[in-house]
Every structure is written in structure tokens, then in C-alpha cells.
Amino acid sequence: MTDWKDSQMRLVLVGLSHRTAPIELRERVAFDPPHAKRVTQDLISRRVVSEILVLSTCNRVELYAVLNEAQVAGTHGMDSSFASLHDVPLEVLGNHLYRYQESHVCRHLFQVVAGLDSQFLGEVEIQGQVRHAYLQAVSNGTTGPVLNRLFQAALEVGKRVRAETSISRRPVSVAFAGVKLGESIFGNLRSSCALILGAGSVAEQVARHLRERAISRLLISNRTHEHAVLLSKRLGGEVVDWASLRHIWAAPDMIICTVASSERIVSRSMLQEAMVTRENRSVFLMDLATPRNVDPSVRSLYNVYLYDIDDLEAIVEENRKARAMEVPKAEALIDQHVTTFEAWQWAARLASSWATLHLEEKMKLIERRASDLYPMPQMLDSSGFVGLQRSFILNVMPTPAICLSRQHAIKKSHGSCGI
Hints:
The chain is of the alpha/beta class. It has 3 domains: 10-167 and 326-347, Beta Polymerase, domain 2 (2-Layer Sandwich), CATH 3.30.460; 174-319, NAD(P)-binding Rossmann-like Domain (Rossmann fold); 358-391, no CATH class. 53% of the residues lie in helices and 12% in strands. It has 16 helices and 10 strands. It has helices at residues 23-29, 33-45, 74-86, 90-94, 103-113, 125-140, 145-164, 174-186, 201-212, 225-235, 268-277, 309-324, 327-356, 359-373, 382-396, 398-412; strands at residues 10-17, 51-56, 60-67, 98-101, 193-197, 217-221, 238-239, 254-257, 283-287, 304-308. Helix 9 links the parallel strand 5 (193-197) and strand 6. Helix 5 (103-113) packs antiparallel against helix 13 (327-356), helix 8 crosses helix 9 and helix 8 (174-186) crosses helix 12 (309-324). Residues 392-408 and 410-418 have low confidence and may be disordered.
């Protein structure tokens, strides 16, 4: 763990991400929780690092660590951990790894948790992933006062960015954009019924978004019946036999089409008949297939809302631009928190340095400082100089005293998550 008497402790980061490495390489060096625990505890026990935390997601693998002066080669040890654990030659990793130190580590982490470094700008999931990685490291006993402070600050940054900017509020995936459009038509989906045609990855994405919004009823139909059954088991839907679709067109409020087919699945006549049965209650169709599953002419039917892949892509692109406009606001918040963390680091180091000095050294330091401020002490008589020194001590001493009290509080909070 971090030795607070070592004022030369350094915060470092070694990692790779979707910006620097292809997915094939990211997969090879990813850490699952047991591996992360084993590697980090080993690095601690061998005194390669004083504190360490692994952040491993589908888009990034990063090692955050604190090194003391004797561990300056620790970054090379972490490079080796990437390589040796996953049997990847270090020279293969070399061009893909990035390394940051001190405030650059702080700023990078704050940008990551705010979603500024994600594939999808403003991504929300990363905040939960960072929280999980931090809690796991605390449980493993590999964090200390520096990483505790850093990651608690990062999670606060993530909350503020999402509360005080709109960077995460507009959907930037086609599936999510479609579901949000459905909400704009029907409002709360808790009383709505959705029919999903298809059982592939796109169908599953939409189904998950609908489940997250507590859709009342989820129907799933696929030409291969077994695939529909598997998807329904994962997400709790009802399976509709493909041959029976003509009997249930009037039931769903939302119809999501994801079928690979050269023929139209939903025709104008089918919807005309369904709308009569529905008494012209609104129906929303999301056509995510190429070629399209829905006859485009249904747009002219009363209370029928059809959006195809091009419509949704256009919405997503506008949302991306709107999110990008929020980046300066997010960066301003990050700047505030980086400054606060740097001030905390400075105070902790000052307190550690001050605590190691003997009383005589402290007095000499104060006298030198007094001489700097008052270059002609010979003009004062002895009682005046003593008074000046006493006054200076009273004005200087509170700063390290406050720092020492902060250091005590930091030590007491070691291992406390505070989230």
C-alpha cells in the first residue's frame, strides 16, 4: 500500500482501448474478475506497485497504479503482466499500449467515466463498469488512499456530467432510437404490446430495450421456431408461431421487423385489416431489415407510423451531433475535478514531507522563509525579530497542520468506498 512518507509517489496508467487496438487484441488481454484479483494481488505482494486496479471492458483494458520512488520501473512490470498472463508477446502490445502519469491519468479516467472516450459518445454503461471495477479492487484489498480518492472523484464526475449536461440523453444506437420513438407515440410502455419479427442480435437489442422499459407484453416470432424460443427464454417473451402471424396483427402496438428476407413480411392489406380491428388505434412499425420487411405504402394509412433503417440512422446522426455539442460543458466539469484532485495530491505530499521534518528543521525553514519576506531583519531589534518570527509561525503553521489532519482523515477512510 502507499507509504505516505514517500512524497515521490506517482500515479500511472497502462492500457489499450478501441482507439488503439483491434477487438482481436483486446479480447486476448481482457481480465475476468478472478484473473484481475490474482494479477493485482501478485503485483502488490512483489512490491511492483503500491496500489493497483484493473478496468477491463469490451472496449478497454487499463491498469491504474500508484508507485513509490523505488518502484519507478513499475510500468514495465504492468506491461509484462499484460503480456505474460495472456501469452501475448510484449512487442505485439507495444504499439497499442498507452501510458499516462499523474494528472494525465486523472483526466483520462474522468473522460472515460463521463463517456467522452467511448465508442458511443456519452455512453452510460461505462459508469457502472468503472464502479464495479473499483468495488472489486477494494474487495481484493489492492487500492489505497490515492486510488480510493481518484475513483470516488471519477464516479462523482460521471454523475455530474450526466446530470448537468445532455451528453447521454439522446439515443445513438438505431435500436434504442426506435424504442424512444415508440415512447414518444405511446408514452409509458407499461401498458403496450410489442411484436418482434426475427430472433437475431438486432432483435435481441430491441427486446432488451423494451424490457428495460417494462413493456407489458412481448411477442416474438421467427421462421426458425427454436430461435424464437431461445430468445423468449432469455428475455421472458411469448412465442408466436410464424404460420399464425396473420391472426395476431391487430394485437401489437409496436411491430419490430428484423428478418432477412427478399419478400415483404408486412403488407398494406395486412395492416389495413388490423387497423379496422384496432379501431384505428395507433401502431408503430420499426423496420430494421435490409431489404425492408414492410411495404412503404403503409405510411399513408391513418395512425400508422413507419420508420425504416434510414429514418432511424438520420435521427441517430442528429443525436450524435447534439451530444458532441455538450462536450465543452463536460470538459469544463472535468477541469474542475482535475484541479481538485491535484490540490488534494499536493496537500497529501506536503503533509507527508512536513511530518518527516524534525522541529529544528521546521524552525530553520520558517526562518529562511521569514528572511525571504523581510530581507532586512537587522533593522529590527531582538524583541521585534522574535515577535516577527512568532507571528510568521502562527501564519505558516496552520497550512501543514490542516494537511496533517487531512492525511489522518484519508488514512481513516482507506478502503471506504463512499458511494
